[in-house]
């Protein structure tokens, strides 16, 4: 017969199941680190918008949970020991759902969020609240604009059809954007400074619209823009999630060690 200490020892030998909300470089790095660890099993969750996501070293599930209630049910059914929210800083809805679901299910939650970029001297960055403000900020005169945005957002520029748009996305945009003058490219980052300089010059880009995503993978376009004195209209970041937050993969691993050690006592 197993005493309480034996039960506790047995529990500590069982792998803790971690749910990692991903879609970012940081989530991938976390998955790579956690895949090497004994005592944890990880499921990485993707929104499911990229057709062929790059291979990941842990099991992946894809698609929405069905709001906070669906995520709460997932946490309970899968006996999730800790929830790591390493989603994109603009993916505010899933982060808000994670906060509610983790609270209801009693699961420790950590948000890993990249620090926002800050402009370097000489950079011409103008924050815009949303897509409608971005359209207005471009002005009435036609411009050549690089829309460094997700597929979901580019449709908003149908409201400013006078401009010529360059759109780069991982997967083809289907249906094609409704603006009359659009060039669509498919490419997967990270992009080098040489890549971005060549792109801006080849298309005679006069303005960029993007998110303040942080990180290194998509920063080179801003370096190229600064050298060319191009205006960059940045969509304002959503409010950060309510959860405990860190900004690095290493800090997330430290938090996780602490959270799991509390479960093992
Ligand atoms: P969102 O508005 O926060 O999420 C919308 C819904 O998508 C969520 O409510 C959830 O559906 C589902 N979802 C999002 N991330 C998920 C994940 N990791 N696992 C499972 N379901 C997930 O985020 P978004 O629509 O994906 O993107 C909003 C902004 O973030 C856009 O600007 C986008 O370009 C940027 N972004 C997002 C990602 C990403 O991986 N999500 C990556 C790069 C950039 P349910 O409510 O049904 O659970």
Overview of the structural elements:
The chain is an alpha/beta fold. The chain is 34% helix and 23% strand. Strands 3-2-1-4-5-12 form a 6-stranded parallel beta sheet, with helices on both faces. Strands 6-11-10-7-8-9 form a 6-stranded parallel beta sheet. Helix 2 crosses helix 9 (249-264). The longest helix has 16 residues, at 249-264. It is elongated, with a radius of gyration of 21 Å. Residues 21-23, 45-47, 64-67, 70-71, 87-88, 90-94, 97, 150, 152-153 line the site of NADP nicotinamide-adenine-dinucleotide phosphate.
Biggest sheet record: 6 strands, parallel
The succession of helices and strands, N to C, reads: HEHEEHEHEEHEHEEHEHEEH
Mean pLDDT: 93
Report the principal-axis shape: elongated
Q: What small molecules does the structure contain?
A: NADP nicotinamide-adenine-dinucleotide phosphate
Instruction: Please provide the count of β strands.
Output: 12
The span between the termini is 20 Å
Comma- or semicolon-separated keywords:
binds NADP nicotinamide-adenine-dinucleotide phosphate; 34% helix; six-stranded parallel beta sheet
């Amino acid at each position: 017969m197993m005493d309480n200490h034996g039960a506790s020892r047995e529990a500590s030998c069982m792998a803790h199941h971690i749910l990692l909300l991903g879609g970012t470089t940081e989530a991938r790095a976390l998955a790579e680190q956690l895949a090497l660890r004994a005592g944890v099993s990880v499921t990485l969750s993707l929104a499911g918008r990229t057709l062929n996501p790059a291979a990941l070293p842990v099991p992946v599930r894809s698609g929405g949970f069905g709001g906070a209630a669906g995520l709460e049910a997932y946490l309970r059914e899968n006996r999730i020991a800790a929830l790591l929210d390493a989603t994109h800083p603009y993916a505010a809805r899933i982060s808000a759902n994670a906060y509610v679901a983790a609270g209801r299910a009693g699961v420790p939650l950590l948000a890993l969020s990249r620090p926002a970029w800050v402009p370097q001297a000489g950079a011409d960055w103008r924050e815009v609240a949303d897509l409608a403000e971005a359209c207005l900020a471009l002005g009435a005169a036609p411009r050549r604009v690089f829309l460094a945005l997700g597929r979901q957002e580019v449709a908003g520029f149908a409201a400013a059809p006078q401009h010529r748009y360059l759109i780069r996305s991982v997967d083809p945009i289907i249906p094609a954007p409704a603006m009359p003058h659009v060039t669509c490219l498919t490419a997967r980052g990270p992009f080098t400074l040489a890549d971005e300089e060549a792109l801006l010059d080849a298309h005679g880009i006069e303005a960029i619209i993007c998110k303040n995503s942080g990180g290194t993978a998509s920063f080179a376009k801003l370096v190229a823009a600064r050298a060319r004195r191009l205006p960059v209209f940045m969509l304002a970041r959503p409010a950060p999630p309510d959860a405990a937050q860190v900004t690095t993969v290493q800090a997330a691993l430290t938090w996780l060690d602490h959270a799991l050690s509390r479960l093992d006592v």
